[in-house]
Every structure is written in C-alpha cells, then in structure tokens.
Amino acid sequence: MPSNISERLQTILSVTFAIFVFGSTFSIALAQSALGLSLALFLAIIIVDKYNPFERRLALVYAAILAYVTWLWVASISNENTIESFNATREEWLFLAIPVGVYLLGRTGPRKLFIRALTAGVILVSLYGLVQHFTGIVLLKDHLAVKAPDFGYSVSGQFSHRLTFGNYFGMVSVFLFSMAIGVKGLRKDRDRLFMFLAAMMGIVVTLLSYSRGPIISLAGALLISGFIVSRRMFRVGLPVLGAIVVSLFVLQPGLFGDFEGRINRDLNEEYSGSRIYIWKTSARIIGDNPWTGVGPANFKQAYLAKIPADIPPVRHHSHAHNDLLNFAATSGIPGSAFWLALFFVVGIKLFWMGRSPAGTDFQTLMSRSALLATLFFLAASMTEAVFADEEVRQALMFIWAAGLAIPPSIGTVGLTKGKNT
Fold it and tell me: Among the listed ranges 26-30, 122-126, 140-144, which one has the minimum average pLDDT value?
C-alpha cells in the first residue's frame, strides 16, 4: 500500500514540477504556485518513503546554502528595519526547488519530462516574443512594449522588464544549446532537435531584448562553451553566434549603435544613471556598513542618503546593479562572501560531476550544461542584481537541480577528481 501511495505521489509531483518549469518561462505566479504544491507533495513523499532529501553527496552544497541564508537573517536582525528585512528574504524559499529537482531528475524515467517542459516553454514564448517585437503587444497589459532603436519593439515577453527577460532566456538558451550540441547524434534525436530549435529561438529573442548584459554574457558563454562542454560546442557555437550577430547587424544596425552609446553613458562617472556612478555610491554604503550591511530591503533608503537631493526619482535605485556589491551593501562583506562561496561550491560540484566516468552521457551533459548556464548567470550579475530577479533565479534553481541530479545508484562525485563516495 505505501508503495502505491508513493508511486501516485511521484506521478503527481512530476506533473506539478513540470508545470513549475514550463510556467517559469512566462508567469512567476503560475511557476511558484506549482512549486509550492510540489513542495507539499515532496514532503508527503519524504514521510511515506522515509526519504532523506539532504543527501550526503550534496552536503557541501546544502551547507553553503544554509550559511548564505543564515547570514542574511543575521543581517536582517542587525538593523532597525528588522521585519521588512526578514520579509525581503522570503525569496530564499526558491532554494527548496533544488532537493525536489534532484529527487525527480535523478530518476531516469521522468527526467526528460522536465527538459521537454522547459523546451516547450522557450519555443512558445520565443514565438510570442517575435510577434511582440513586430507589434509591441504585451498580453493582459494596457501598454505596448518599449520601442526598439531601429524599428519594432524590445522583447520582454510577459516579464516586467526586458532585462529580466534577456537574462532568463539567455541563461536557459545556453543550457538547452549545450544539451542539444554537447554530444554527437543530434539529427537522430528528436528531443535534442527541439532543444536546439528552442535554444536558437531563445538566443534570437534574447538579442531582441536589446539588453546589453544578457547579450554580452550570451556571447561569452558560447565562446567558452568548447572548454566547458566539448570541442563540438565551440565548433557549432561560434558559427551560430557569428551568423546571428551578422544577421542582426544587417536587420537591426541600431542594436549595436545603441550598445556603444549606452556603454559610454555607463562609463560616465558624473551621470547618475551610469553603472560607475551606482557602483561608486554603493561602495560608499558598504564602507559605512562593512560587516552586516544596511539589511535586506534597506538599500534604496541608504542610497538616497548618499546622492544629491535633485537626482530624479527614476535614479533612486533599489539595488546596486551588481550582485556582489548588492549583497555587500545589504548584508555586509561576509554576505557577499557567502554568496560567492555558494556559487563556487556549486560550480566545482558541477565541474566534477560533468567529468565523472560513472555517469551516463545524459547525466554528465546536464552537469556541464548547468555549469555553462551558471557562468552565464555570473557574467550577467556583474552589471545587474540578477539574483534579486525571482524569474531568473527560479530557472537557475531548476538548472542547478538538473546538473546535481546524479542517480543514487551511480554514486557520488566528490569535490576532487574521480572521488566517489
């Protein structure tokens, strides 16, 4: 009887988690509702099967997450705005998607369901993005998308900002592109052909978001793909990148002209909207609060205290436009160190899992692809507080789960090459 209950719970959990993955491409409400339901079902499975969700093989990853979250709470307690600061840390519940995803993606049967869900979502929203580029239509909204430099509109999908859209679709496109191209036999595998199609469409709409950070991060990820995944990735990735850039240069020359103008503005230390200005002001906030920061949710108030009163409201920023600086400002230099340590631990784990001789091609490819997507995320976070965007962050949690989900029967890859436990 318990096994029948467990099987039914696993089936329902697979459906709800697939909805979470699919919904993340266009709706934060749908995605997080499905994730909440998935967590309830996962808890039931833990009770029925007496399953330990925090496996020893991922102990260091979970320890790094716990250390990061704990320090955020310390920073929340250490300021006068404690309740609001604690409320601002509510997004940390998204980390719970990792043990759920590891549990599901570590099982050979349902694992492709979630990659297919992501693939389908990217294709559908990319089609919508192309329509949006030419028409400006934003579904369920009473306004059009932002005008593009040449013609048409900047693509933002159903997200609140084109930069969020660019970061999300750039990251998942890198992941799917790596999954499709990382091993031979693309033409013989229908799933991987759809992944490749989704990746190509995702790359196009990322470029049409006209967002500098995602576009530069996308180019960097494709350029280093051969070193992370396989030489085949580089042989395919570089021509693909070149073809897309040339096509857009012909069709949308304003994309690159606008790039140059905005980069020059960002290097202007006197311009209140430039990244240099924001970073220097954020550094002054860090200098005044180096240990526990000003607390989560308090950045904007601290920022206003550092800038002239005549700066327009549009330049009253709520984050530092750089993840490391943002965490240093809100939770102190130790907070940024814990955040960076988390990415280091996950990155090293993904690296060695991707090189494990114990795993199958599909399993090691997920780890390599997740590592490449993580590097995209880190590159994008240099010019934007990407970790503060729930849409992008929940996709990263799924990608990490996919990369860390080596089946228990295969064994665990340690943090040193070839070490199994």
Answer: 140-144
3-state secondary structure of 34: helix
The CA distance from 226 to 218, in Å, is 14
- Give 301-332 as a DSSP string: HHHHTTS-TTS-GGG--SS-SSHHHHHHHHHH
Query: Contact 370/350 with Cβ under 8 angstroms?
Result: yes
* For the chain, the helix, strand and coil percentages under 3-state DSSP, each to the nearest 5: 70, 0, 25
Place of tokens 């389908």: 120
What the block records as the tokens of 287 is 């200098």
Could you give the percent of the chain with pLDDT greater than 70? 91
Span 120-130, mean pLDDT? Answer: 98
Record the tokens describing residue 375, joined without a space: 């590097």
The two tokens of residue 40 are: 């309830």
Interval 272-278 mean pLDDT = 94
pLDDT digits (tens, 9 = 90+) for 372-400: 999 999 999 999 999 999 999 999 999 99
The answer for residues whose C-beta is within 8 angstroms of residue 192's C-beta and 6 or more apart is: 179, 180, 185, 186
Query: What is the 3-class SS of 45-101, one letter each residue?
Result: HHHHHCCCCCCHHHHHHHHHHHHHHHHHHHHHHCCCCHHHHHHHHHHHHHHHHHHHH
Start-to-end CA distance of the chain, whole Å, equals 33
SS3 assignment, position 154: coil
Q: What CA–CA distance (Å, rounded) separates 138 from 181? A: 33
